[in-house]
Design a protein that fits this description.
single chain; 354 residues; alpha+beta; Catalase HpII,  Chain A, domain 1; ten-stranded antiparallel beta sheet
Length: 354
């Protein structure tokens, strides 16, 4: 007895189901791969964020890195100088609203401000068409390493020793000895000192991206913001939280400004390795002015629920082949899901029961 084919209506239904199920299946496989379920030995975002958490301590509801920070708002005033190099609306002449966040590296939201010499600035530009440009920048000239595995190894070397509660100097020395690419960063950090103000810092994007023009031309760039006309702060701040106090006082007196600069790579410059600086003679254009006019505590401010994923880009800006960019994106997403879940659980526990 031979089986008959299903009625036409049933066949169409099965085909439609297959079209729906296949993408879902692929998404599930991709998710399992990213989480490391298909290969437990593979480096995953979960492992990176777990290590960040082990280093910074258990602080539910906070970012696993750059946990201590303050929200800021303002706008970017483009001068149009990059409009020919990128079709992104943010570079057309005019104003784009910005929500930013000053922060310290590390996972401890209660760390004293003088504990590290690095300051960070994350920004979200929202174009009139709804597209966003998100970027995270740091007050250092290069990233210590150029690969995700090396970054993970550096986190492992920095984990507190259970016996002392502090990183093991021998483990850190061994890491740096086995990673000669950290030499440029180490040369900088030897003379770096914790500044007394977020406002006086230059913030570099470090990773390379591509600007894409309307005709499809792609040019590799790195960006930074440089402070304009800022009164120097004292050589050292007072108290554990002087950075937030300083920026709030400065903004209460008036807006603060930074010039957004774009540096273009020459052929042969490394665009996939954030540990390597470009020569100082590379062509640089001023794209406009970042203006910040308000500071708000991060627990209630507009930056609280923003994931400053550096791969969220408008048309006209594209990621390079730098392996740190997708790794940062995945780790940021994992950290975001953890902290928002913790906040939601806390709020649910505090709600009165009927």
């Amino acid at each position: 007895m031979t089986s008959r084919p299903p009625p036409l209506g049933t066949a169409a239904t099965l085909a439609r189901f297959a079209l729906i199920a296949l993408p879902v299946l692929l998404l599930g496989i991709t998710f399992a791969y990213v989480r490391g379920w298909l290969d437990p030995t593979r480096l995953t975002p979960v492992k990176i964020v777990d290590t960040l958490q082990a280093t910074g301590g258990d602080h539910p509801g906070y970012r696993r890195n750059h946990a201590k920070g303050v929200c800021v708002t303002g706008w970017f005033e483009s001068n149009g100088q990059l409009a020919q190099a990128s079709k992104a609306e943010v570079f057309a002449p005019g104003r784009t609203p910005v929500v930013g966040r000053f922060a310290l590296p590390g996972g401890n939201p209660y760390a004293p401000d003088n504990s590290v010499p690095i300051r960070s600035l994350a920004l979200r530009f929202t174009q009139a068409d709804g597209q966003q440009w998100r970027t995270g920048m740091n007050s250092m000239p290069v990233f210590p390493v150029g690969t995700t595995q090396a970054f993970f190894d550096s986190l492992q070397a920095s984990r507190p020793d259970p016996a002392t509660g502090k990183p093991n100097p021998a483990a850190q020395q061994a890491f740096f000895a086995s990673h000669p690419e950290t030499a440029a960063f180490l040369a900088w950090v030897k003379t770096a000192k914790p500044s007394a103000s977020f406002a006086t810092e230059r913030y570099d994007g470090l990773n390379a991206f591509y600007l894409v023009a309307a005709d499809g031309t792609r040019q590799a760039v790195r960006w930074r913001v440089v402070p304009e006309g800022v009164t120097p702060a004292p050589s050292a701040g007072e108290g554990a939280d002087y950075l937030a106090q300083d920026i709030e006082q400065r903004l209460a007196a008036g807006p603060l400004r930074w010039t957004l600069q774009m540096t273009f790579a020459n052929p042969g410059d490394p665009v996939d390795d954030a540990s390597k600086a470009w020569p100082v003679d590379r062509r640089t254009l001023e794209a406009g002015t970042l203006v910040l006019d308000r500071a708000v505590a991060q627990n209630d401010g507009p930056c609280r629920d923003i994931n400053y994923d550096p791969t969220v880009l408008p048309q006209g800006i594209e990621i390079s082949g730098d392996p740190l960019l997708p790794a940062r994106s995945a780790a940021y997403a994992d950290s975001y899901l953890r902290r928002t879940g913790e906040v939601n659980s806390l709020h649910a526990a505090q709600e009165p029961r009927p």
